[in-house]
């Protein structure tokens, strides 16, 4: 009986630990407004003196403004994280507005520290994510205005505007600093370059093709 209780406690501890590690640490106080000019380095940002905190530390204005989509991808992400709202520090949340020109894309990328829930505000989006090895299964759906879709933490995902006009989405993320790894930029635009022979073998491409791709990033 005692061993069963012990096994149960170990299992519960493992579950709780996995949940705790899947998102930002919980705050142990009302708030920890980021003191962005602090020289101290921590896993997050050092707290500002709470006596110096005001409404401006929890406020951001600007999501009503369309992002400039005049670029090669035809999209623009306007982030609202701890850099924009210092009061988000330790709260484990952030969001972004994403604007898409007709047929514009938010290219395949991952958020290493957050799951994402996306809502279409205007227009229509094709969205998708790829499951991990060995299946690498692509899960896709067409979203209309008001539809919501979730991208699990760490998985490669993308969006494409399939409307004839502009599309707008709001994405919420389960981290104050979700991070973004754009796959093409990371693979072909690393500094310094990943050796050509490695990429050629990994992607089964001619080396000249790899060199050409690296020159574009």
UniProtKB/TrEMBL annotation:
UniProt entry keywords in alphabetical sequence: Apoplast, Disulfide bond, Glycoprotein, Manganese, Metal-binding, Secreted, Signal
PROSITE patterns, alphabetized: GERMIN (PS00725)
Domain Cupin type-1: 61-211
Positions bound to oxalate: 106, 111, 116
GO cellular component: apoplast
Localization terms from the record: Secreted, Extracellular space, Apoplast
Signal peptide positions on this chain: 1-22
GO molecular function: manganese ion binding
Family: Belongs to the germin family.
Protein name per its UniProtKB record: Germin-like protein
Gene: LOC115697986
